[in-house]
Records
---
Amino acid sequence: MYDFDSPIDRRGTDSVKWMAGDSCRSSVWPDVIPMWVADMDFASPPAVALAVRRRAEHPVYGYSMKTEAFCRSYIDWMASRHGVGVERGWLSFSPGIVPAIATAVRALTSPGDGVAIMPPVYHPFRNMVEKNGRTVVEAPLSRSGGRYGIDLGALDAACARSRLLVLCSPHNPVGRAWTRDELEAVFDIAERRDVIVFSDEIHGDLVYEAGRMVPSLALGGGARKRLVAAWAPSKTFNIAGLQASFIVTPDPAIRARFDAASEATGIGSPNCMAQDAVIAAYNEGGPWLDEALLHMRGNYDALAAGLAARVPGVEAYPLEGTYLAWLDFRGVGLEGDVGPEIVERAGLWLDAGVRFGPGGAGFARMNLGCPRRTVETAVDRLAAAFGPGA
Ligand SMILES: Cc1ncc(COP(=O)(O)O)c(C=O)c1O
């Protein structure tokens, strides 16, 4: 029903992904393909574009109030899509998840405190901790047999020195959707070490196998007593530029601390375009998302099959969640920061793994929110640059 394959020219829209920066310049390739920052090259669901157009037609763009319909659309989505009951009173607004991480760090820890993260992980986690004067404590993921996991021993040791854990679920960039057992083990450690968990679930709607996403809000035991869960329609429906996210904190004392820190930043209500867009997305975007997931799963399959057949030295890790493929280039002799070499030799602008911290050297992250043809071209270019006989 929806078109994910016709290319849409995003140049001239101030797109971060498509702006021509130094990192995408190649002396060989005039047309480096941007497959990095995590937004999709697809049109958002038609209902979203309609809602934004309708709102834009009214020429007064003043302050807006957070509406019940806005909150309700998210609550209904969580119930119907994930089978999770969310109470209205648990919700706080944040324009983005990254500002919410910063707010949580300021609200729930003190200067100098440890904040645990599990690298390789989305790089703003580290930045938000360090730029707010706290100390990053690393619990690197484990990797064996072509699969990443949570190193519970390392996590326990990290939590022993931390007040807060910033969890990425599903995990960007390695593509894992954590199982219930894994998440329960994480929350057991958090409880034992008295650590609050900020669970960034921005990719929570982008899990390929039905029922495979386990929202931390669905965990039993005492998980909800130490949880700040962060959700957003931004990745799900490709509306990150509209800046609206939901921070869900069941525990009243933790929520009060988060809200006080949020108020101290002056963050107020959603912008006047965002609410109508979010309501349309959650209420009407489900069929679009189902098709987008099928398309992106197909993109991953095309990439993995193409690499296995034509570039066996580059390994694609399994993709359970997110539309970001995690690729190991060490088998073709690349090490450290692989970004510039991939731009120069293959004309592809990927996110170099080193951005994501320890464990990222020799790796790169490829964004699959694009037409199939883009993935096929990427495989052609990788084969020419790094395939046997290249
Ligand atoms: C794990 C994760 N968290 C947060 C964000 C961005 O959040 P926001 O744009 O809402 O600040 C991203 C974007 O790539 C992400 O991958």
---
Amino acid sequence: MEQFHAMELPHYIIVGEKLSDKVVERLRIGGFRNALIITSPTPYRLMASKIESEAHNAIDVEVCVLGEYGKLLNGLESGRYDVVLGVGGGRVIDTAKAVAETVNVPLFSIPTVASHDGIASPMTSIRTGGKAYSRKSVMPSVIIADMSVISLAPRRYAVSGCGDLIAKYSAVRDWWLGHLSSGEYYGRYAAHLAYLSAAVIIKSSRKISRMDLDGVRTIVEALISAGVSMGIAGSSRPCSGSEHLIAHSLEHLMDSPPLHGERCGVATVFTSYLHGSNWRRIAESLRGLGAPSTLNELGVDTDIFTEAVIKAPTIRPERYTVLNRVKLDRKRILDILQETGLA
Ligand SMILES: [Zn+2]
């Protein structure tokens, strides 16, 4: 057992509408003078350009539209920026985390889609040689979720965010199994907080599926809360278990995989079956949300999914999950896929 446990938490979170002036206000309050904004074309148009013009004169702002990232890395000097702002989707926020970590300055997370829980977590997903893996980076110190921008994103992204949240239903069970098998740290509070973010989506799936402002806002708040549970746990354990290993495994096996949360949602039906928990309820919630709830709807064929399940435990061998406990061969996986209606 570790001798101490450190928690990293954001210190200011705001969820509301038309918040570009609030971003600049927070920069001013923080005493920042040189901000680097990392963004991509649509988020630039919808949000980052407004921050840039609001900041005019008061704060020196440099904008890097993703795609120019290679160029930016070469010119990256610590001391030149005193804050990094990630304005965009998953790839943008991940990149902003890595840059803030490299130059050792605070990070503002300003999501423009509600598709995953990285918006408020210290985890970043890195792609090298076509393989994605996640590691701990920096926790955003400020999170500003502008609903007037996030609600404009295609419905598919928010539905994917729900899949990433429903995954916590399985992830917290894997964490508990890991604790039982090796005595690894298990934080009851962090586990409950992550579980709550899944429960709220499962319980209100029909209502949320309308994707009105209230529904999308619930998803955003649950994603922030899931990210905070990782900050409390000090790792992604409460939010990422066997279902995420399968989702990552699918990403490795496919050239153009479905969205992260879409993969996680379907994989959660499968891993909930292995856990002996209520997989029917998970499948029903996904259907209620209009999310993919079968392999066919996910656009993944049975062979690929089977392969992904077999390879999943090798992705992070140190992470004990139900996949280490239940021995699965191809035949058994196919039987489960049939029984759960996934295939
Ligand atoms: Zn995830």
